[in-house]
Amino acid sequence: MHLGATLRLLRVDAGLSLRDMARRIGVSSAYLSRVEHGVDAPPTAERLTAIARELDVPPALLMDVANRMSPYVSEYLEDVPGAGTLFLELARRRLSGTQLARVRDFLDAEFPVRGGLSDAAVPALAPLLTPERVVLQLSCGGWEDVLDVVAGRLAATLPGWDAARLAERLRQRDEESSCAVGGEVAVPHVFLQGAAPVAALVTLAKGLHVDTPDGRPLRLVVAAVDGERGRVRLTRMAHVARLAARGLSERLIEARQPGQVLAVLEELEALR
Amino acid sequence: MHTNALTLLMMQLIVIIGVSRLIGRGTRWLGQPLVIAEVVAGIVLGPSLLGWLAPDLMNALFPTDSLPVLKMLSQVGLVLFMFLIGLELDPKLLKGRGHASVAISHTSIVVPFALGAVAAALWLYKDFSDPSVPFSSFVLFMGVAMSITAFPVLARILTERGLLQSRIGAIAITCAAVDDVTAWCLLAFVVSIVRASNLAQAGLTTAFAVGYIAFMLLAVRPFLARLGARVASREGLTQNVVAGTLLLLLASAWATELIGIHALFGAFLFGAVIPKEGGLAEALSEKLEDVAVVLLLPIFFAFSGLRTQIGLLNTPEAWLACGAIILLACLGKFGGSAVAARLTGMRWREAGAIGILMNTRGLMELIVLNLGLDLGVISPTLFTMMVLMALVTTFMTTPLLQLFYPTEELARDRLEVEPPAAPGSTPYTVLMCVSHQQAGPGMASLAKALSGGEGAQLHALHLVHPERVSLRTESESRALEHETEGEGALAPLLGRAKSLGLAVRPLSFVSTEPAQDICRTAEAKHADLVLLGWHKPLFSQTVLGGTVHEVMQAASGTVAVLVDRGLSDIKRVLVPFIGSRHDRAALKLARRLMRQSGAEITVLHVTSSESNGARAQVDELFPAAEGSGVRLKVVQHASPEEAALEEARNGGHDLVVVGVGAPWGLEDRVFGLQRERIVRDAPGSLLVVHESEPVVEAAVESQAAAPAVASRS
Question: Does B598 lie in the same domain as B463?
Answer without folding.
Answer: no
